[in-house]
Amino acid sequence: MLIPFSFFKLTSSCKSTIINYDWPLSNEHLLAIPRCLQKNHAIVDPFITTTRFISKIKQTLLVCITTIYNYSVRPPTNFFHPYKAGFEMVAQEFTVDLDKPLVFQVGHLGEAYQEWVHQPIVSKEGPRFFKSDFWEFLTRNEWYVIPLIWLPVVCWYTSKSFKMGHTLPQIAIILVMGIFVWSLLEYTLHRFLFHIKTKSYWGNTLHYLLHGCHHKHPQDGLRLVFPPTATAILLVPFWHFVKLISTPTVAPALFGGGLLGYVMYDVTHYYLHHGQPRSEVPKNLKKYHLNHHFRIQNKGFGITSSVWDKVFGTYPQSKSIEKERMMQ
């Protein structure tokens, strides 16, 4: 038989003290009380007892969660955390195995990545990037693939502006403007994105894919030009940017000029690493770019031109000027 809403009160007496309210307990009710409650216990309110029990559980859980958080998520400096300590030890002593795919190794270098990636290995044969043959294929392409793919796209976009009423001299001016826009974009990307400082696992990994691989293996002939798949993806925001800064009739030719500037950049970049220039201008440009790779890697961000380096103060000083400063 169930006991109605009555109050059970714990006492130190051996006899049970019963406090009756609206529903007094009858003898039948008393017989229904378990012996464990009849001995040294009195009748209490089940609702109050349950509430207090739940409150105690909440307090206990809160203490457990706080303890776990303090000693695992944010361990104190004097507390030995085996997982974290082991990870830091591995990160500090990690050595890249050049005989294995590199992309998912370099992230483990941590802060040491910046020093490692700027110690070039001069070899025409580059390392393997991925274990998968498919992804490895996407990272390798010959230099001539770039003009073969993108010059027809340049012509198609340029012809759209011509069909919209622009004359050939106007088209030529717009193309030059597009090349000018690309030259500034080339400098900006190289300086602020390609040479960003990273130390996290994914930061190092992405930087290596984007530009770090080129500084580590500057003579890798199959990875000197940008993969067409990646270029196609990046051209989408570039197209929307061009539409934003120009009119509907100018935008196609301006976009074509920017893409033409990119093609000139990639082909020039390959030539500066593997060509043997004989005239003065390409010789100086080759010397200027290799100086960025092997001497002063935080200056000389221009590839096809040194104009923007001079404008923004990142033109590298000559060795003679550096010697004079050191002697002073």
Describe the structure.
This protein is an all-alpha fold and 328 residues long. The protein has 14 helices and 2 strands; from the N terminus they run ββαααααααααααααα. The protein has helices spanning 27-32, 35-38, 46-73, 82-93, 113-117, 133-138, 145-163, 168-193, 201-216, 228-245, 251-274, 280-294, 307-312, 319-327; strands at residues 7-8, 18-19. It is globular and about 85 Å long. The termini are far apart. Residues 1-25, 27-44 and 68-91 have low confidence and may be disordered.
As residue ranges, the low-confidence spans are 1-25, 27-44, 68-91
- The outline comes out as globular
Question: Roughly how many Å is the radius of gyration?
Answer: 37 Å
Q: Count every helix, treating DSSP H or I runs of 4 or more residues as helices.
A: 14
Order of helices and strands: EEHHHHHHHHHHHHHH
Characteristics:
328 residues, 2 domains, two-stranded antiparallel ribbon, 14 helices, 2 strands, disordered N terminus
Task: Give the secondary structure arrangement, pairings included.
Layout: E1 7-8, E2 18-19, H1 27-32, H2 35-38, H3 46-73, H4 82-93, H5 113-117, H6 133-138, H7 145-163, H8 168-193, H9 201-216, H10 228-245, H11 251-274, H12 280-294, H13 307-312, H14 319-327
